[in-house]
Amino acid sequence: MGVYPVKPAVRAQLTLDRVAAACEEEFGAAERVGDSVTTHYGAIDALTARPGKGEIVVELRMNPKVAADVAAETIRRYNRFLETLTGYTAKERAKKAQKAAKGASAG
User: Fold this and answer.
1) What is the DSSP letter of 79?
2) Residue of 97, 13, 99, 106 lying closest to 54 (CA atoms)
3) Which sequence spans correspond to the domains of the chain?
4) Distance (Å, rounded) from C-alpha 63 to C-alpha 46?
5) Sheet holding 44-51, edge to edge
6) DSSP conformational letter for 14
7) pTM of the predicted structure, to 2 decimals
8) Cβ-based neighbour number of residue 75 at 10 Å
9) Phi-psi bin for 87: left (phi > 0), alpha (psi -120 to 50), beta?
């Protein structure tokens, strides 16, 4: 499970409707189940996403047995999906994750 922080300027827009729209935009389909949205695409066997307080929570199950081109396209779409919802690029998310990991290990 991944928990991704959302830029303050984007937080007000982080609703279940927005998560569903981002899924449909990147993956072609989305199904609402309770307070979350589920989808699948390419190398993604299952993706479940839900808005949190200042964050988006994503559960992801990947299929490692797909062709390399399918995996690469899936990763591109997944990164665009997260950027749309969080406001952060993949590089910015990686830096935030590294900073959080350093803070956790220092404490």
Assistant:
1) H
2) 13
3) 2-102
4) 9
5) 2-5, 55-62, 44-51, 36-41, 31-33
6) -
7) 0.89
8) 15
9) left
Q: Which two tokens stand for residue 23?
A: 């899924």
**All residues at 6 or more sequence positions from 25 whose CB lies less than 8 Å from its CB, including other chains:** 81, 84
Residue 63 DSSP symbol:
-
Q: How far is CA 39 from CA 7, 58, 74, in A?
A: 24, 11, 12
Distance CA(43)–CA(81), nearest Å, equals 15
Decide: helix, strand or coil at residue 24: helix
- CA 107 to CA 91: how far, in whole Å? 25
What's the alpha-carbon Rg for the chain, to the nearest Å?
Answer: 14
Specify the CATH number of the domain 2-102: 3.30.310.190
Q: pLDDT per residue over 30-42, tens digit each? A: 999 999 999 999 9
Token pair of 45 as six digits: 């066997």
Mean per-residue pLDDT, 64-76: 95
